[in-house]
Write a structure and sequence with these properties.
29% of the residues lie in helices and 28% in strands. The protein has five helices and six strands, in the order αααβββαβαββ.
């Protein structure tokens, strides 16, 4: 919880810096207000990871064994029930990389940690809701798009997102080169 202020700074920098060309400035600011932010349940559950750099946090991301598919604390209005690993996929959640450190393998490192941890507690699949700037990473990691959605926000703003799924690789098994 001590990292909350640094996480908020990272999230804002990541969303503003990496969304250019994918979302308008109005969409970015609306998403920061209504969608993106810290989900403290991930921290409480011990399923959120950070990568430190010389000047502070440079990446964060996690997984969850709870029902919530995306969004920070500001989106939650009900209890976030636990998923059943025997028939429900775990969630990949809240990946943010500082724009200065994008495309340096940090997202992949976070994903690999999530994959090991989720497998260890019995999950065999992942589901996530990807932003447009996040889709290339998740496609490279072997996720498949199963649904395109437009999330309506106040003011008539819509944010295009993609629901994606992927089986979890057993520990020590590298993903197929054709999938990332």
């Amino acid at each position: 919880m001590a990292d909350l202020p640094a996480l908020q700074v990272l999230i804002a920098a990541s969303v503003r810096g990496l969304s250019a060309g994918f979302y308008s400035a109005v969409q970015v600011e609306a998403a920061l207000t209504h969608i993106f932010g810290v989900d403290t349940q991930l921290i409480v559950d011990g399923t959120y990871f950070v990568i430190d750099g010389a000047t502070g946090l440079v990446a964060a991301g996690g997984w969850s064994g709870r029902h919530t598919l995306y969004g920070g604390d500001q989106m939650k209005s009900a209890e976030d029930r636990l998923l059943d690993p025997t028939d429900e996929p775990a969630r990949i959640r809240a990946f943010f990389v500082h724009p200065d450190r994008a495309r340096q393998g940090l997202g992949r490192r976070l994903y690999e940690e999530c994959e090991r941890a989720a497998w260890a507690v019995g999950f065999r699949g992942f589901e996530l809701m990807a932003t447009r700037p996040g889709e290339p990473l998740y496609l490279a990691l072997g996720f498949s798009v199963v649904e395109q959605v437009a999330l309506p926000l106040p003011g008539g703003i819509e944010i295009p997102l993609a629901r994606m799924i992927r089986p979890i690789d057993p520990p020590g098994m590298a993903p197929d080169a054709s999938t990332g």
